[in-house]
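Translate sequence into structure tokens.
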Amino acid sequence: MENKEQIKEMVRQKYAEIANQSKDMNAASCCGAGGCSTEMYNIMSEEYTDLQGYNPDADLALGCGLPTQFAQIKKGDTVIDLGSGAGNDCFVARAETGEEGKVIGIDFTEAMIDKARENAEKMGFNNVEFRYGDIEKIPVTANRADVVVSNCVLNLVPDKEKAFAEIFRVLKPGGHFSISDVVLSGKLPEKIQNAAEMYAGCVSGAIAMQEYLEIIQKAGFTEITIQKEKPILIPQDILANYLTDEEISQYLQNPNTIKSITVFGRKPNACTGTGCC
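Result follows.
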């Protein structure tokens, strides 16, 4: 695997490609670009169509959960969506926070920002804003958000400790996050861990669930709760790109190695840690 900056550039290029292709093509593969699976189903994303605010033009079928469904967004809240893509979760959040609230989407792929802004303009949303920026250095002032959401993006960030420290910084005291992400409950085969395209597909960039939760706790969050959990199964035709038949057989003996979780955490009202304010 490349160094952190090379990983970021690879992810940026891959998601620029995704921004310019159809939802059907994205949904046909785990990696979201290039049609890497011949099995026509989406192994990660969940159905948004029943959620208020859903816009099919903004749904690229790239998520691994429904964080906005669990985010406890209230009228008038300021919501930040990290890795906002074409704006799908932002528009669902906007339906919850209402016209009196504010939604800020952050993405570091310019093609995604352009697509999201176009979608917001079509719907005439004046309180949904999209900013170009890195999750490891969120372009938002401290203590700004009531709620932070993110959908299958934090696993793509090389420095997850810095990312959660930034989430802590931008949340108001008492604010919270609801994040859907990919984690591991076992060890991935080394060939998959080292595959750059599987990193962009949100798989080889995942870390152990316990380590993930420890990073959140270390950042200063409390009330850490798993709101939803489900296994993610990689189609065998994708596994065959990286593993031998024998290796695939061994991997399938523990089919629940990769999981999608939606996790909640709250920033305490009072600062109790060194430098946390």
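Note: The longest strand covers residues 171-184.
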